[in-house]
Amino acid sequence: MEIDTLVSNQNPQWTDENYLPKEAGWPKREVFTAVEKWLNKRFILALTGVRRVGKSTLMKQIISRLIAKKLGRVVIYFSFERVQLKLEPLLLQRIITHYLEEVLGEKIYEIKDRIYFFLDEIQNVPSWQEIIKMFYDQNDNFKFVVSGSASLFVKKAAAESLAGRIIEIKVNPLSFGEYLTLVHPNFKVRSKNKAWVSANIGALNNYFEKYLRAGQFPEIITQGMNYQQAWQYLETIEEKITQQDLPKIFPIKHPEILSLILSQIKDRPGQRIEYGEFAQNAGLDQRTMAKYFDFLETGFLLFLCRNFGKKPLKSLRVARKAYLVSPNFGDQAALPLLAENYIFNLFYNRGFSVYFQKEKEIDFVVRDKKRLILAEVKFQNEIKGEDTKNLEDFLSRKPATAYLFTKKLFRPGKQINFIPACLAEFYV
Predict the structure, then answer these.
(1) What DSSP character marks residue 251?
(2) Does residue 297 come out as left (phi exceeding 0), alpha (psi in the -120 to 50 range) or beta?
(3) What is the chain's mean pLDDT, rounded?
């Protein structure tokens, strides 16, 4: 296919002034505002996150805003998802050059207006960072927004060619609030109103359990998938990442091991991981197994939680807990484990440093610059004295903010805040 056809097919706004991407009318996610705030800054924006989480939709919605402002001609979008780059390794450079010279008809040094480049699934492009840097440095009016499904592509770029030029914005799976907006737009959560919570906790938990099982990926909701269809959909995402994406980036000799690791974590998210045991079962050495876990974390399928202790270096050597990037991947796991996974992700995705406390058996010890937070997840209807004992023992030795995330209880404690897990994101 000729370069002109290849590029123009993805940019109908150049010839149709009434064109708007279909995504323009879809609900805007919370991350939309974060991206929009950076749009007029000089930095390259990198949207990262697991496959099918909504990065392309986010790009199209930003593009829609620009088109609505009559800026469609100074916007170019291109997805490298299905392009055979082995046959055309310099395609990115050709696309940008063609757009500037043939569509805009200007030399690089002549361009005075802001030009927006939206490049989707950029990690598939060899040496993309050098190519973007070349154009970025030639004109201050060039704004690049790129996306990718593995965190390594940004880390490498930031450490090498694009140091000081690139900002990463992570696109996470749907929050519970975003899920409710999609499935029940008129259902407004009034989390601070105790009477309202008491009257609606049953409905909230009903939604929350559906959300934990199959409610964190936009297409599952918009396509009206049932549980079986959702899990089949998620399996295709896993397979694409473990069998295609990661082997392209890393020297992985046994991609099937990635699937085996993931299948075990899916059954019991939050389990403690001993690399030696996994390595022995797989017939690999421990160091190789540790790398395989790192690969899965880079591919946004797993998060690893380290033990909380006085010596940070020691915490790197002891057992970790493994959590799924989304509870939805744990199709056979018990709901309390999915709720624990959700609480971990909530803190982690908001930028906290999250640990587990092995010695005191506390689910999470959470740090930011100012606070120490304890979090215990008991996704059950009744809470007994032993359920709060570990938190109370820790608090007797060290001050902290403590949360007990439950299923139905909603009452303040003297030392411990009791909060339904379904309302956690409205309080944390």
Answers:
(1) -
(2) alpha
(3) 92
